[in-house]
Structures are given as structure tokens and as C-alpha cells.
Design a protein that fits this description.
By secondary structure, this protein is of the alpha/beta class. The protein is 37% helix and 21% strand.
């Protein structure tokens, strides 16, 4: 095979691989990098810090918005997952990406969806910039008890909740 053909095929397969990796609810394992600490105001007025959970809890940081249909479709599954595992040291921190135009809808959405975990407001987008610079929605980061990033996941398709539940259970089983 001529060298130019090999180069073209290599380039084509690389582009296809990168395109496939960016589609759907792809889970991206991390290289066990530490999760950057942050503090954000919660909907209830309290300030929540990620470091408050280090050493005690597995944390799912979920970036969502009231205007994101896949986010809203995923939310009941996150509520159930939280209810099932909260007594084992699992926490969901739901980071709202709603801006001023949709901020008023956050409280009613939280109430309607029975979001009983902390709902954080990232109006300055400082946490979003650290974890989710592309502003993908929904986007979640699973942080182990040791404070390291275990997994990042973008998008939501029905059925993804089973894989997420498995990842959470595995993280909770690690000491």
C-alpha cells in the first residue's frame, strides 16, 4: 500500500475514533486526577464545599439546567440513586447552569423533581469552567472518597442510569 494511502487511512480512522468518542453518553475514565475543590451557594442559602465530603463520601457532581430536556429526563434516576445509596456515603451535588433568564425556574424544578440533594448555583460559571469547560449538558463527574475523579460522563440516553448505578456501587465498595 502506498505511503500516502496509509497516511490517509490513519488520519480517517483517527478522526472517526475522535468523533465516536465525543458522541452520546460516553463515560470517560480519568487518570485518577484529584478533583479541584470548590465552594458554591446552594439553593437553600448554605455554602457547599466539595472538600467537606473528601474522605467520607462518593460524590456525583451533576451539571444540569432547567432548559435541558435530557437533564430533566435523567433527574428522577439520580434522585432514586441518591435515595438508594445516601446512607452508604453517596452524595449528589446538582450544579445548575441556569443563567438569569431561567434562574427563577430552578426552585420550581427542584420541587417538582423532588431533588432532595444539594442544588448548587454556579452563576459565575467558575466550577463549570474547571470541570465542564465545553458546557455539555447533562455532564457528571464521579469523585471517589479519596477526592480523585473516577469518571466523567456527558449526555444522557435511557438506560445510562444502569451503568451509572454500577459505577457508584463500585466506588462505594472501594475503601
Amino acid at each position: 500500500m502506498p505511503r500516502t494511502t496509509r497516511c490517509a487511512l490513519t488520519l480517517a480512522f483517527t478522526v472517526l475514533g475522535l468523533a465516536a468518542a465525543g458522541c452520546g453518553a460516553a463515560a470517560r475514565p480519568s487518570s485518577a486526577s484529584p478533583a479541584p475543590d470548590f465552594s458554591l451557594p446552594a439553593l437553600d442559602g448554605k455554602t457547599v464545599r466539595l472538600s467537606d465530603y473528601t474522605g467520607k463520601s462518593v460524590v456525583l457532581i451533576d451539571f444540569w439546567s432547567t432548559t435541558c430536556d435530557p437533564c430533566l429526563a435523567e433527574m428522577p434516576h439520580l434522585v432514586e440513586l441518591y435515595k438508594k445509596h445516601k446512607d452508604k456515603g453517596f452524595v449528589v451535588l446538582a450544579v445548575s447552569l441556569d443563567g438569569p433568564e431561567s434562574r427563577a425556574q430552578v426552585s420550581s424544578t427542584v420541587h417538582d423533581r423532588e431533588m432532595i440533594f444539594p442544588v448548587l448555583l454556579d452563576e459565575e460559571t467558575t466550577v463549570t469552567a474547571k470541570y465542564n469547560p465545553k458546557r455539555e449538558l447533562p455532564f457528571s463527574v464521579l469523585v471517589g472518597k479519596d477526592g480523585s475523579i473516577l469518571q466523567k460522563r456527558s449526555g444522557y440516553q435511557p438506560g445510562d442510569e444502569a451503568a451509572l448505578a454500577g459505577d457508584v456501587e463500585k466506588a462505594l465498595g472501594q475503601q
